[in-house]
Amino acid sequence: MDPISRRRIALAAPALLLAGCHAANAQPEGPISVPPLRQVAPFPVGACAMTGQFQDPTFVSTLVSNFSQITPEWEMKMEAILKNDGTFDFTRPDMVADFAAQHGMRLHGHTLVWYAQEMPAFKRIDGAGKPFADAYRNYILAVAGRYRGRVVSWDVVNEAINENGEGERDCIWSRNLGPDYAALAYRHAQEADPTVPLFLNDYFLDTLPNKRRSFLRMAERILKSGAPLSGLGTQTHVSIHMRPGAIKAAIKDLASLGLPIHLSELDVSTRNADGVKGRFDMTPMSERLQIQARVVGEAMEAFMSLPAHQRFAFTIWGVRDKDSWLRRPPNAGDGTDRPLLFDDDGHPKPAARALVEAVSRT
Ligand code: G3I
Fold first, then answer.
1. Staple 288 to which of 65, 237, 261, 270, CB 3.0 to 4.6 Å?
2. How many distinct structural domains can be found in the chain?
3. Region 159-169: what's the mean pLDDT?
4. Does any domain span residue 324?
């Protein structure tokens, strides 16, 4: 399902009733100062990035001074690598890997197998049996093999659970390889690069407890098969309407398998609660940013409460508000969303301060 509809599920989740409950005295804050995030956390703090941002000096300086890890926003995915004729183009992922190396930043590989990217080269052999299985293995070996020694980890399978949280998605991978396409992907990835943790990553594991249960059941099945799944990613694309405590409950639950946890794609949308027709939310942005800070603080407190060996990384899905996918078509809405830790000019927001405060008090 397209990202916009995902947002409808997230924002219609049990929510703080913001309409009308705005504090009359909510005053916009002046500029705030926050220490570089990467210096405060006892684990990597990451952000997503793409080559199109590397020529923007403010983006680069804000990224490099605050974050120690990069997730390629899209340029290590099949859409960037696998050409229609079945050949590989590594130009873009190589540029991301080079940038990370040049700036002394860790690189989290994202992602090898995703239901949302059934590219033409695979569609052409859909149903072909062994040729499909061989191409699947060849793709994973080629990509994970190329970046061995350059990535610190991989999202091997991304978003395998159905949108509504019930069971595993039907996709080109499951149709051609059966439900064990995921376990197979971890085996291929380990064959290519036995040196890094291999993650299963998904979203709404906080807003939809049934989805979290399906996700954990899938992870347990992969582990029972003996496949080398070695980390769980919870994307945490949430909003200011998030029910307090939901993120903490999710992190605690996900940690129950004992694997490293990657809070992998945090953003906290400030837009109105979609899906609630007729709701005209008058909450001022200054108050929305305070609520956002509370949500970020909860996420960081939850992450900090994990044992050190389970704190893989805490990653934000973008650097400045204007860098967010939620400010780009087709998800831009009215273009006013402010989902990240830094404003459009790269100045820290209350959410950045809340992250630092949560680290220091936990
Ligand atoms: O920058 C190029 C531009 O040069 C080109 O002209 C244009 C047309 O091809 O494409 C532009 O790249 C787009 C890129 O976003 C930057 O805007 C890609 O087409 C587009 O596919 C890509 O979308 C990304 C999407 O995943 C699909 O890969 C989003 O940026 C990215 O935020 C989103 O991230 C996903 C995670 O991987 C998984 N979790 C959900 C998250 C949000 O949907």
1. 270
2. 1
3. 97
4. no
Which of 315, 324, 317 lies closest to 343, judged by CA? 324
Position 344 in a domain: no
Contact 253, 321 (CB under 8 A): no
Burial group, residue 226, by CB count within 10 angstroms (0-12, 13-18, 19+): exposed
pTM of the model: 0.93
State residue 27's pLDDT score. Answer: 62
Alpha carbon of 73 to ligand 1 centroid (Å): 7
Any residues with Cβ below 6 Å from ligand 1, and which? 3, 50, 52, 73-74, 77, 79, 158, 203, 235, 265, 325, 328
Is 73 assigned a catalytic role? Answer: no
Which among 73, 205, 207, 262 is the best mutation to test ligand 1's pocket, defined by most ligand atoms within 8 Å of the CB?
73
pLDDT at 33 over 70: yes
Query: CATH number of the domain that 189 lies in?
Result: 3.20.20.80
- The range of the structural domain enclosing residue 65 comes to 47-319
Residue of the CA atom closest to atom 15 of ligand 1: 74
Domain assignment of residue 39, yes or no: no
Question: Per the residue annotation, which of 73, 75, 168, 265 is the catalytic one?
Answer: 265
The residue whose CA has the least distance to atom 16 of ligand 1 is: 74
Which residue's alpha carbon is nearest to atom 32 within ligand 1?
Answer: 325
Residue 7 is assigned to a structural domain of this protein: no
Q: Look at residue 94 in the predicted model and tell me its pLDDT.
A: 98
pLDDT value of residue 304: 98
Cβ proximity of 206 and 236 under 8 Å: yes
Which of the four pLDDT bands, split at 50, 70 and 90, describes residue 246? very high
The ligand 1 atom at the shortest distance from the C-alpha of residue 325 is: 32
